[in-house]
Design brief:
This protein is of the alpha/beta class. The protein has helices at 9-15, 17-20, 22-27, 31-56, 104-107, 112-116, 123-126, 183-192, 202-210, 269-288, 294-316, 324-329, 338-352, 373-397, 470-480; strands at 92-97, 136-139, 146-149, 154-157, 170-176, 220-223, 249-250, 357-360, 404-409, 413-414, 417-419, 433-434, 438-444, 451-453, 455-456, 463-465, 490-492, 495-497. Helix 13 (338-352) packs parallel to helix 14.
Length: 513
């Protein structure tokens, strides 16, 4: 074969004065020459970028800079399972959120000083900590009796008789506190780590970090109350600035779990498969022309998930498969406990199937006991006590409790003084909000049961021993899931955003098994 007319690379290099003399190359390097030489690099970079977008859909990094490292999170956002930072104690979370702020001194933290000083004025000492100052009354004892339970003699109120049988599985945090005594900002704080709207919530952070073991169900499921949404509505389970694929998915506890889940008419499986393959191809072509659109990615992902869910979701929520004894364990045979019990049972079925994060809410804020606390707090307990005890029992007997972290609590606690109604009738008194003391408990996945950590002062006004902040609580949850709060971040506006913000929390080692 004849030698090509163009010079070989080595011949070109030897004949090029700029290559033989680098100093000359620098002196003679014109603007036009710079642009000519850069052109090939720009084209190559553009080609690599386009190829990277195609490779990214398979989660395969093409460019070294795109590979995930401990210091640089990925750019492919999905819910496929991912390795934790270290060996986890828990694989999933069930968050039993008690909207409104449960009263710690009426449930888990009895105060004999309130009995002794019932009716004594105290408002002048805590005026700055009271939200409804015009209704503030004197110190008020609890209307309920307490007893010790379990091997460690843990104190629980008489209005939680079923939970009292489970205390050996539970770690109580009596020294917890928060930063705001108003519902909305306190809810933002407990769910997203800061008192601001629009931030990612706990389930979004967890699924961003770990994905989910079951790709036929959402990674983050919300079981809200059929009677109505909680305060702050859907902001309690939003993705915030994280890609929308990590937002909580609401499941209905009765009927079809998701609206429009079933097709309008049946068709052969082969036709359905061809349709889905065609739609997937069109989606991929459409997305590849519109990079950097997380809303689009999330919508495509949700459509695909909806197709996979048609069988999986209906099966997960079909509690008719459970024995009568199991249904009674959750209180499904009682109108008072049926609704919450159904959702607790569904939560167990979801984590059993590999769902990462399940959150249960109550309508409105039933634990916001401003008035007639003797009746209102008992009502809240009546609705939730047996279902929660049933959940703990069921998880234990199925071997799921060790891998499932259960979290119980509200956004803040209550004050030791009475909140009086307009007619000042002390028999109808309740309690106002308290940001300085609250009681939360954890069970399961890596938690040391039969533990009480922290203490409040003699009247339950503020946490004084082994204090636990909301940020400490979040860091501990992540730790139990095998996530380092310092390494779980999302780059945004030049900052590495974290669930724990800029604070340096502590993991609550005292309650770890």
């Amino acid at each position: 074969m004849d030698e090509p007319t163009t010079l070989k690379q080595s011949q070109r290099d030897e004949s090029d004065p700029q290559i033989r003399n680098p100093q000359s190359a620098i002196r003679n390097f014109s603007r036009r020459g710079f642009l000519e030489r850069m052109g090939a690099g720009v084209h190559a970079s553009a080609l690599a970028y386009l190829l990277q977008r195609e490779f990214s859909s398979a989660n395969t990094p093409l460019l070294a800079a795109e590979a995930e490292t401990a210091d640089r999170p990925r750019r492919v956002f999905d819910t496929r399972p991912r390795s934790p930072h270290f060996s986890p104690k828990a694989a999933s979370v069930i968050h039993l959120f008690m909207n409104g702020g449960p009263s710690q001194m009426d449930l888990f933290d009895p105060k004999p000083e309130l009995d002794r000083n019932h009716g004594k004025s105290y408002f002048d000492k805590i005026a700055g900590e009271v939200e409804f100052t015009d209704a503030a009354g004197a110190l008020m004892r609890s209307p309920f009796k307490f007893a010790k339970h379990g091997e460690m003699g843990m104190t629980v109120s008489e209005v939680l008789p079923h939970l009292a049988t489970q205390v050996d599985k539970i770690a109580f945090l009596r020294g917890m506190y928060t930063a705001n005594l108003t519902h909305e900002p306190a809810l933002y704080m407990i769910h997203s780590g800061r008192m601001l709207p629009g931030l990612p919530t706990l389930g979004a952070w967890v699924t961003y970090g770990l994905g989910s073991e079951n790709q036929n169900l959402p990674a983050y499921v919300v079981l809200d109350d059929p009677l109505g949404l909680p305060i702050n509505l859907t902001q309690n389970w939003q993705a915030g600035f994280l890609p929308p694929v990590y937002q909580g998915t609401r499941f209905r506890s009765t009927g079809s779990p998701v609206l429009n889940l079933k097709p309008d008419f049946e068709e052969p499986d082969a036709i359905t498969s061809l349709e889905r393959d065609l739609v997937a191809t069109l989606d991929r072509l459409h997305r590849n022309q519109r990079s950097g659109q997380p809303q689009l990615d999330a919508r495509i992902s949700s459509y695909r998930l909806a197709a996979r869910m048609q069988m999986a979701a209906s099966d997960a929520l079909d509690i008719s498969q459970e024995t009568q004894a199991t249904q009674q364990l959750y209180g499904l045979d009682n109108p008072t406990t049926e609704s919450y019990g159904r959702r607790c049972l569904i939560a167990r079925r979801l984590v059993e199937r590999g769902v990462r994060f399940v959150q249960l809410f109550i309508s409105g804020q039933i634990w916001d006991t401003h008035g007639d606390i003797a009746a209102s707090l008992k009502s809240a307990c009546d609705r939730t006590d047996k279902p929660i005890a049933g959940l703990l029992t069921d998880l234990k007997q199925r071997g799921l409790l060790d891998s499932t972290l259960i979290m119980w609590g509200g956004e803040f606690g209550r004050l030791p003084i009475a909140q009086l109604p307009p007619d000042k009738d002390e028999r109808k008194a309740g309690r106002d909000h308290n940001k300085n003391a609250m009681c939360t408990w954890l069970a399961g996945g890596g938690v040391k049961g039969g533990t009480v950590l922290g203490a409040t002062d003699e009247i339950g006004l503020k946490a004084v021993e082994d204090r636990v902040s909301v940020t400490d609580f979040h860091a501990t949850m992540l730790h139990l899931l095998g996530l380092d709060y310092r390494r779980l971040f999302y780059p945004r506006n030049g900052l590495d955003e974290k669930l724990t913000g800029v604070e340096e929390p502590r993991v609550i080692d005292e309650i770890l098994a």
